Predict the 3D structure of the following.
Amino acid sequence: MKKIKYLVMAFAAICFTAGLTSCEKEKEVEKIVEVPVEVVKTDTIKVPVEVPQDNNWSRYQKEVTNHVKDNKKNDKVILLVAFGSTWQQAFDTFDGTIEAYQKDFAGYDVFLSYSSAICINRAAAGENTDPRYYYAPPFWLNAFADKTVQYDEIVVQSLQVIPGEEYTRVINYIKDFANNANGDLDDEYLSRVVLKLGVPLLQDAEADVNLVATELNTLYADKAKKGVVAFMGHGNPDAYDTYKANIRYTELEQALQKFSKNYFVGTVDMMGNFKTNVYDRMQQSGIKSGKVFCHPLMSIDGDHGHNDMAGDDDDNWQDGIGFTPNEDGEVEDTSWKKFFWHLGYECNDDTMINLGLLELPTIRQVWMNHTQDAINGEPLDFYHSKNPE
């Protein structure tokens, strides 16, 4: 067969968002690749490129696959997907969650994944404690499909709080896996494996929001009698709130206030629902002094809980001037603790409730109920609507 020579630029290092270390500087390597004439006659010229076998992606995949093979005890598996964290308290919380799942879902192997590349990298670098190695969902899904493993049933449980941007990423991971996006999985296996998806904590506007509000009130009604209980969620910035999931924070506050007007729910990223907006709502309700208890409304008490909520960051305050809000109305560089303290409330280390939602067994159970519902339900229609009602 006659062949034509093409000059191809191959990269010695490739950056993947799921990587555990920063990408090395790309090094261009010239290679001469012989391509059959038949290839170049098509509308799209496909030039084969030699990809190094020993790159970060292949190393991580091998690590995860070997871990799954070594720990496979059942033919069914649950993959818990969290955004991630770099704090020891969060690591302990995730470990405890895995143990709870192993206890309640005895016929399933249980693993946990991070969806945030930043958290994966920083946890591996030991940002706040000893290094911990987490991997992105595609590595786990590929491992579950490996010919030496091949689980009969795969249940992916989102540990997100709202059905927003991060949950959408979880769904897309599953879709890419089911559709063999990279073309390197066994299509016959993919045609028969059962895929199921457990939804986020506040997926349903009625059932989930009201149940979580009831359970939170059971836990904190005594504190709501003593002062404000302000929950700090994350939220999606407007540009990322594609599926309008931020509404869940407003709905949860409304559900909680049926128990007590002292409950409030704010966020670090939802436009119009920053701590400054929580303060405005407190003022409108006539709450101008007293205790303010702060609690993370996130699966774990990580960086946001330790710093944005309970930290000592106080750079925005100026004596004689006060706070200077940004163009969005938020007071940056000041924690919730310091913000409410400066405004005359009793808000200090003693009023910080440093617990993630997964550390609260009754709230964690809501996620576990979603997992059981997924198992009891039909196999996943991974094209289903992501939009919360």
